[in-house]
């Protein structure tokens, strides 16, 4: 999972070493032509929202999921795992293009 944080601040320190930045970040308010404090923004991807939703969901199917994972691990280990290539491709394409 990738988390992108953009604060609008420069990536390098433009002040002198050891001197704190005492002035708040400002940006121009294009409507009124005045300067206002900068506002941080957060954009959460649909993947992150889904992951958070799943994390909050009830663990009702944990036993069934654990059994399925154990069965798949065994199939991979003994070489009998044979996934459907069409289902894999569809799932990958859905994942790749979901946030666009």
From TrEMBL:
Residue ranges of the region described as Disordered? 1-35, 54-85
State the SUPFAM superfamilies in the record: Anti-sigma factor FlgM
User: What region holds the Anti-sigma-28 factor FlgM C-terminal domain?
Assistant: 40-94
Pfam families named in the record: FlgM
For this UniProt record, the keywords arranged alphabetically read as follows: Bacterial flagellum biogenesis, Repressor, Transcription, Transcription regulation
Under the heading Gene3D superfamilies, the entry gives: Anti-sigma-28 factor FlgM
UniProt biased composition (Basic and acidic residues): 54-70
**What are the GO BP annotations of this UniProt entry?**
bacterial-type flagellum organization; negative regulation of DNA-templated transcription
Q: Which family does it belong to?
A: Belongs to the FlgM family.
Q: What does this protein do?
A: Responsible for the coupling of flagellin expression to flagellar assembly by preventing expression of the flagellin genes when a component of the middle class of proteins is defective. It negatively regulates flagellar genes by inhibiting the activity of FliA by directly binding to FliA.
Q: What is this protein called?
A: Negative regulator of flagellin synthesis
What organism is the protein native to?
A: Geothermobacter ehrlichii
């Amino acid at each position: 999972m990738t988390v992108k944080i953009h604060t609008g601040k420069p990536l390098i320190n433009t002040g002198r070493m050891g001197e704190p930045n005492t002035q708040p970040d400002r940006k121009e308010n294009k409507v009124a032509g005045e300067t206002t404090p900068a506002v941080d923004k957060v954009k959460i991807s649909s993947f992150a929202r889904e992951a958070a939703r799943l994390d909050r969901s009830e663990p009702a199917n944990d036993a069934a999921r654990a059994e399925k994972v154990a069965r798949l691990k065994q199939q991979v280990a003994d070489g009998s795992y044979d996934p459907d290539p069409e289902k894999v491709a569809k799932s990958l394409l859905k994942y790749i293009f979901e946030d666009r």
